[in-house]
Amino acid sequence: MSKTRKTAHLTLVYILLTVGAVIMLMPFYYMLSTSVKAPEELYVNRLVWFPSKIVWKNYADAWNEEPYFPRYFFNSAFIATVTTILQLATSALAAYAFSNIDFWGKETVFMILLGTMMIPSQVTLVPNYAIIARLGWIDTYKALIVPFTASVFGIFMMRQFFQTIPLEMWDAAQIDGCSRFRYLWVVMVPLARPIFVTSGLFTFIGGWNSFLWPLIVTNSDHLRTIQVGLSRFNQEFGTRPDLLMAASTLAIAPLVALFFVAQNQFIQGIARTGLKS
What we know:
The structure is a single chain. The chain has helices spanning 3-35, 57-65, 69-100, 106-116, 125-135, 141-145, 152-162, 168-175, 180-191, 193-209, 212-217, 226-236, 241-273. The mean pLDDT is 86. The protein has 277 residues and is mainly α. The radius of gyration is 23 Å and the shape is globular. The protein is built from 13 helices and no strands. 72% of the residues lie in helices and 0% in strands.
């Protein structure tokens, strides 16, 4: 490929990527601009992309006018954090077994686990609810946390990463009298920090954005999450898009901040997951 054709090809790629980025960012910009609009700009016959006056008060109103909104925030943060910690622990243990320990039927069991990823979550919704109801966990934190403490996707990602770590390191650790659990904790976990961050981000985002399950298993306002709270917010303030968009901006702000803080580790984890020595 000549230099001119290569330059034209790269230019076309950059143009297409730029157009795609603009299309994806437009809804976020509309949300941000609407969240600071004055009420009189919300009901005009044309779309107002740039508000003539920025009304920061909308954020205070969104936070204060829904009495349980701070509680929704706390619930989402608490549930997502605890779920992430527990899921990382179970995924690391299972991934270590599948990558470093030889046992009968290992590959078969792993394939069966991967096969469960093909089952839509809606199919298991009713059985899961029946189990939670039998256990008496309806309208409790246990119903929001325990079903998500294990993840096949997390196990898969960690297994792929663990397989990039040479087995000779385990041989050397054995000579020093290191147990398997200590080897996992002292050697493999520090080396696998990027995949822990990546898997943790996926888990935290999933827990934070969860809507259907919290809606089903909770009845009281003090246990509902931010996504369920936004739906109630919309019912109560359906004629105030500015407050709804302000509340939505507050809801996604922690995720955006978390991604920017951990983006380098996230990219490394994604890049190395598919590699195998």
